[in-house]
Amino acid sequence: MKRRICGIFAFLVVSAIFLCSCARMDYTDEEPLLSSDTDAEEAWCFTDALGHEVELTSPKRVISLYGSFAETWILAGGTLLATTQDAVEERGLELGESVEIIGTVKNPDTERIVALDPDFVILSADIAAHVQLEALLDDMQIPHAYFRVDTYQDYLFMLDGFCTLTGRPDLYEEYGKSVEDEIQRILEKIPAESPAPMVLLIRAYASGAKAKGMDNLAGVILDDLHADNIVQHHESLLEELSLEAIVEEDPDFIFVSAMGSSEEAMKALKENLMDNPAWNGLHAVQNEHFILLPKELFHYKPNAKWAESYAYLAQLLYPDAMNEEK
Which of 99, 199, 205, 273 is the most exposed place for a label (fewest CB within 10 A)? Predict the structure, then answer.
């Protein structure tokens, strides 16, 4: 993989030498740059989620080792050589017989990756098995990049870059810009004078549960919607879900995002927390504001459904404001 310092001066020099257009982006929350020329071959120069400088030009043999990122590549008009099982089992992508399934997201088949001779491998910066592949991909000179999508801005960054590589800026408008515009319309409806609703966000597992904050996509959305997450007042909840602290704050809403089997996660939560008599005294429980969040909007990366994720929570937190016509 070509790695270089893609500063403004270097950008001009490389463009002059190779006579190609290089869309330069950094992995930040700044507004993505929208490609405009579908006829010219255009490179994408950017800093990935692990701080690597990357330059790509119109890859054709693409492997994604994460189903969510595979979906984003497809939304951008790209085709896949191979991906992992979660693309089918969790995302429900219809890939066609020509697309190989090469292991799981946490255990991809490295031999098949090399044998397929890809010109771009898409990886997650949050998955240890992917990070461990870096040395192999470097040694084999296989172009690759790491991504992290925790916010809709991260999604827009990835989608815009992918649309640059596929030469399909129209798909960025359809699956990116329109999503961003809808999110802004939702945020504009939030009444500035209203007190912030107090919330608790729980990530539930079959083996236990923890409170979550800005390290969770639902937590980020709740913050954007001006909700007051009680973990900001009780950081200890991030390590241990204490009913005493929850009762002390008495949140207006309790949201649960389940990992793995929702049934097993909720069973464990009931045994460890909800069976305590104090639980039923919480206002969120009494007002039926104890809500299991849909996985497709809050556990998996929403991608083109980011606006639906915002709308779902906004409708619960501010029903009167969301139902007003503007």
Answer: 205
